[in-house]
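Throughout this chapter, every protein is written as a compact record of paired, labelled lines. The reader may check this reading against the record printed directly beneath this paragraph:
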Amino acid sequence: MESSASLELAKHALLMFGIILALGTLSGLLARLAKVPDVVIFLLIGMLIGPGLLGWVNIKADSVLNQLIMIFGSSYILFDGGASIRLQVLKEVWITLLALATLGLLITAAITGAAAYYFLGVSPIVALLLGSVIASTDPATLVPVFKQVRIKERVAQTVMSESAFNDAIGAILTFTVLGLAMGAGDFSPGAAIADLLKQSLLGIVIGGVLGYLAALLISHEKLGFLAEFAPVVSLMAVIAAYMGADGMGSSGFMAVFVFGIMLGNQSSLGFKQTEQESHQLEDFVMTTALIMRMFIFILLGTQVNFALMGQYLFAGVAVVAVFMLVARPATVLLCALPDRRAQWSYKEMLFMCWTRETGVIPGALAGLLLGMKAPGADIIAAITFIAILMTILIQATTTKWLARKLDLLTDDQP
């Protein structure tokens, strides 16, 4: 009887996977016809087929299956984003990038927290916890958008890199504030900074070492005996980078992002692939990343709690409006304007002010707070989903239009 029940559960999961793949494929075609980023359509389709409406797919946010998809999917999309980053560009904008991923995140959390305190009437600590949860940008959203809408290279790579690097900092800030909210201890700026440096630097080292080893085994003239297995090596290394970094108490997402940077800059490391091998790996990564996008954003859509969102809709929209129209511009201006080396133009900064989608990582943090029964967790989850919907549906769909108006599109449109 037990094995029969397990078999039925497996069949049910397989059916839902089939539905997601089928509708994801149709959504991709629809997104291409509508000329909008596919993550927008994936999210809308997920809301339609979720338990709140049609009920075709119902995978709980706290289930093992959902967590597996979210962790691996986000890691692989992050790896794909890292592989598209060019070290030469990062050398030019590293000051802005560092400021956005650290000081910028704190500015966003503080302004958003103040808005939450005013509009929602929650306690200051719950307001700050909400600001911390949604402060980080989302690589799983931004990487696909910039893959489909070709923006001026240094702008796109700065925003994508910020989204990767600030995830770790956003998680650290969230759990630091959570400790205060649950009375777990006093806040220690020194301890928080030390923890941040440990997670970030260790993640960078682990990702860098594994990325170099992968490039060595794939592309070295004499030692590259795994060249024909490059796609499999990329899968193994993404898992190893995330699990290795996470197991050592550092940022798994930062590790996979740096791993992607190393593998995407093989020529700078002195390695070369044949054209056929390069295309094989590129096609595999592109297809796998597309499948991960389908699963992540369709599942995210199915998990939208309409009743909870409706309860805090008007105040939530006001908070997210401040988040988008006040907190983000203030963050960009305070972090990018002083960077004389990058010499950002007004148009570039205006574009970065508008581009800061919220997605998987804030959604996952909100889910964790619900599971831990943190103070104000229900309100935080509701506002987080409102932020995800508003930023993806409004900002992601207008990215190409704004880039065209600001003359930031490149000629090599896909």
In short: The domain at 17-405 is CATH 1.20.1530.20 (Na+/H+ antiporter like fold). The radius of gyration is 21 Å. The mean pLDDT is 82. DSSP finds 16 helices and no strands in the chain.
